[in-house]
Amino acid sequence: MFSMADIKDLILTVVSPLVSHPDELTIDVVETEEFLEYQLSVHPDDVGRVIGKKGRVAKAIRTIVYSVRVLGPKRVRLTIANS
């Protein structure tokens, strides 16, 4: 089982090689009753790279993140936004 920090590291490991501006890559965690929501912010030039054609890259990233089992009953959600 993974903690919040482990999932954050996983997202950074997957997304960092995809972007041109890794220094502007940030992840904020918002905890709600049902979810641990990871809000990924990237440089505006990198949004297309992270989302991919027809959202395929974003879907693949979400599949990896959602497949990880987290401690506790909450589910994981990943949102992607530009800075």
Summarize the structure in words:
The chain is of the alpha+beta class and 83 residues long. The chain has a single domain (4-82), classed as K homology (KH) domain (GMP Synthetase, Chain A, domain 3, 2-Layer Sandwich). The chain has helices at residues 4-15, 47-51, 56-67, and strands spanning 26-31, 35-42, 75-82. A three-stranded mixed β-sheet has the order 1-2-3.
Q: Fraction of residues in helices?
A: 25-40%
Shape annotation: globular
Spatial arrangement of strands, main beta sheet: 1-2-3
| Rounded Rg | 12 Å
Task: Give the structure's gist in a few sentences.
The protein is built from three helices and three strands, in the order H-E-E-H-H-E. The protein is of the alpha+beta class and 83 residues long.
Keywords:
GMP Synthetase, Chain A, domain 3, 35% helix, three-stranded mixed β-sheet, alpha+beta, 83 residues
Write the layout of secondary structure elements.
Elements (H helix, E strand, L loop, with lengths): L3 H12 L10 E6 L3 E8 L4 H5 L4 H12 L7 E8 L1
